[in-house]
Design brief:
Layout: H1 14-49, H2 62-73, H3 84-94, H4 98-105, E1 107-112, E2 118-128, E3 131-140, H5 141-170
Antiparallel strand pairs: 1-2, 2-3
Length: 171
């Protein structure tokens, strides 16, 4: 049994493929920046409303802000009661949060399969205790579409519930 004839290098529109990958990557990063803004705004709003011990700290890094919000609205946090829905949305967001580091800091290498679909290999080097850790993620074009749809849905829910939380605690 034979498969489809392989594409010749001349038949591949590398610029269009690169543009497609970069548009997908940019759309994902846009979702993460929206989430970061909503998380930061919420931390600031929570900090203004209630004097908590320890005080709510925003942190400089995105991960620190996510962690601070998780503690503030989690079951043991000072906003646990008001933040139940937001806590569930944040937990859902955290399940996909790892993608952000790869997209924002990873170096991509694009391949094309016989059907003309792209495959993105993203490599990211993290430093842990002065040792390099190489992380790699493979994303196929069809899977990328589903991943972006999931990210958009999760992000929309997170931003909406955080907006509701800010309104609730401001009252």
């Amino acid at each position: 049994m034979t498969g489809p004839a392989p594409l010749s290098n001349d038949a591949i529109d590398w610029q269009a493929i690169t543009d497609s990958v970069n548009m997908w990557r940019g759309a994902c990063i846009h979702c993460f920046t929206q989430a970061e803004a909503a998380i930061t705004e919420t931390l600031l709003a929570l900090g203004e409303v209630r004097n908590t011990t320890p005080p709510i700290r925003t942190g400089n890094l995105f991960g620190q802000r996510v962690e601070a919000l998780d503690k503030a609205i989690g079951p043991e946090g000072p906003f646990a009661q008001d933040g139940k829905a937001a806590s569930a949305a944040l937990a859902s967001f955290r399940s996909i949060e790892g993608l952000r580091v790869h997209l924002a800091h990873g170096v991509g290498n694009i391949s094309v399969d016989r059907k003309g679909k792209w495959l993105l290999v993203i490599r990211h080097t993290a430093m842990r205790s002065n040792k390099a850790e190489l992380h790699e993620r493979l994303i196929e074009q069809d899977g990328a579409v589903l991943l972006l749809n999931d990210l958009r849905r999760i992000n929309q829910t997170l931003c909406s519930t955080l907006g509701n939380l800010r309104k609730t605690v401001a009252q």
